[in-house]
Amino acid sequence: MTDPLALLRSLFDAAVAVADPMRSLAAHLPPRPAGRCVIVGAGKASARMAEAVEAEWGPCEGLVITRYGYGRPCAGIEIVEAAHPVPDEAGCAATARMLRLLDGLGEDDTVLALISGGASSLLVQPAGEMTLAEKQAVNAGLLASGAPIGHMNLIRKHLSSVKGGQLAAAAHPARMLALMISDVPGDDPAMIGSGPTVGEPGTAAQARALVARYGIDLPASALSVLDGESGVVPPGDPRLSRVENVVFAAPSQSLDAAADLAQREGIRVKTLGDDLEGEARDVARAHAALAREMQERLAPGAAPVLLMSGGELTVTRRGDGVGGPNAEYALALALYLGRAAGIHAIACDTDGVDGAAEVAGATIAPDTLARAEAAGIDAEAALARNDAHSFFAALGDQVITGPTLTNVNDFRAILIAPA
After folding, report:
1. Which end of the chain is less packed: N or C, by CB atoms within 10 Å?
2. CB hemisphere CA count around 56 (13 angstroms)
C-alpha cells in the first residue's frame, strides 16, 4: 500500500477535484437564453462557477461576490472579492449593487444565480436599522456559539434583506435558475448560503428562540428585527413561482470519488454518511471508538479499511486558540485513539479554509502524540483552548491547499490497518 498519509491526501484531492465547477457545472447549464440574461452569485466557489458559465456561453453580464483570494478571470461577469466568514464593507457594497442590477427586470429576462457555501457572509444587506459593524458582531457570535449550520442560517436569514428567498424576490418577475454547490448536511437548497433564492418556512420568532437557546448576545437593533415583521420570503410566495433551484455538486459525489480511488488501492471502504453534524471533539470520540473496534476485527495481513465521512462539524469556543472544526476533530481523534498503531487520518474542509484560518485541515499518524510530547507540546491543553491549528503547525502536519475554488464541506477519512 502507498504511504498512508500520502494516500489519504490523494483521496482528499480526488474529493476536491470532482467538485470543481469547471468539471461539473456545464452538464447542468441550459442553452444561453435569447433575451437579456443577468448572472449573479455569491460563495467561495461562485467565481469559478462564473468562469465555467463563460466557458460555455461566452462573455456575460453580471456580478458575483467571492472570498478574498478566490477570484477568477471572467470576460464580462464582474468578480468582487469580500471577507468571509465575517462580512465587510466590500461585500455590503457589492450586495447593494447586485440588488440594483436585478431591479426592473421583466418577464422576458433571465437570471442565472450561482450559489455556494460562503454566500451567507458574502451577501450582506442587514435588515432594519442594523449597521455593518453590528452584522459583523452577529456573525462572530454565531460562529462561536457551537450552533449547527441550519440554526445559524435561520438566524442569519431573518437578520438579512437578501437571504431566505429575498434575492429571488428582488429579481421577480424574471425567470431564475439557481445552480448550487452544496456544503450543508442533507443538501437542502434552503440552507446553502442561507437560501437567497429559496423560500423559508421558519419564523423570526423561531430565530429569536434559537438566539436564546445558544446564548448569543445580539445588539438591540438585531433583536428589534427579530421582534418585528420579517422580510424572509415563505415557500409558495408568488415571487418564487419562476425560480428553479438545482444542486449540481454535493458532498456525496466527492466521497464517492475518494471511495473509488481507495478501492482501486485494494482498501475496503465504509462510509459513515455525507451529512454528519455535531461538536467536532464529540464526533472524534465516537469515530475513534469505531476505528479501534474495527481494527480489533482485522486479521493479520487483512486489507486495510477506510472510514469516510462528510458533513459539517462545529466547535463551541472555549479558549483563545486558533482552530477550526477539522483540525479540532483531528486533534481530538489523535487523543482518543491513544497512539493506536496502524491508524492514520485526515480531516479537511474542501474549500481549503478550516474555520477562519488559511488551512484546510490536518493529518494524524500513530506517532502524532509522541512527536508532540518530544517537542514539548501539550495536546490536551491545545484541545482545551481550541488551538488545534497551532498544534499541527508546530508538527508540520497541516494540510494547506490555498483556494480550492469549490466547497462541498468537510472530508474526513480514517485509514485502519491491522495492528
Report:
1. N
2. 18
List phi, psi (to 5°) of 291.
-65, -45
DSSP 8-state code for residue 179: E
Backbone CA torsion sign across 198, 202, 205, 210: negative
222 and 134 Cβ atoms separated by less than 8 Å = yes
**In angstroms, rounded to a whole number, what is the distance separating the alpha carbons of residues 287 and 295?**
12
| CA pair distance 10, 30, nearest whole angstrom | 33
pLDDT digits (tens, 9 = 90+) for 8-21: 999 999 999 999 99
Q: With beta carbons less than 8 A apart as the criterion, state whether 361 and 330 touch.
A: yes
Taking the complete model, does pTM exceed 0.85, yes or no?
yes
**What region, left, alpha or beta, does residue 193 occupy, with left being phi > 0 and alpha being psi -120 to 50 degrees?**
left
The three grid cell numbers given for residue 48, joined into one nine-digit string: 469559478
C-alpha cell at 298: 482485522
Q: What angle do CA 300, 304, 308 make, to 5 degrees?
A: 145
Residues 54 and 272: beta-carbon distance below 8 Å:
no
In a 3-state reduction of DSSP, which class is residue 306?
strand
- State the DSSP code for 27: G
pLDDT of 48 strictly over 60: yes
Distance CA 139, CA 121 (A): 8
Q: Which helix (H) or strand (E) holds 52?
A: helix 46-57
What element of type H or E holds 55? Answer: helix 46-57
Across the range 402-407, mean pLDDT stands at 95
Distance CA 98, CA 119 (A): 13
Q: How far apart are CA 187 and CA 181, in angstroms?
A: 9
Cell of 152: 445559524
For residue 351, the Cα-to-chain-centroid distance in whole angstroms is 7
C-alpha 367/C-alpha 74 separation (Å) is 46
Distance CA 176, CA 407 (A): 22
Per the CB < 8 A criterion, the answer to whether 117 and 410 are in contact is no
Quote the CA–CA distance of 184 and 178 in Å, as a whole number.
16
Distance CA 159, CA 156 (A): 5
**Residue 93 burial (CB count, 10 A):** 15
In DSSP terms, 268 is beta-bridged to 305
pLDDT at 185: 85
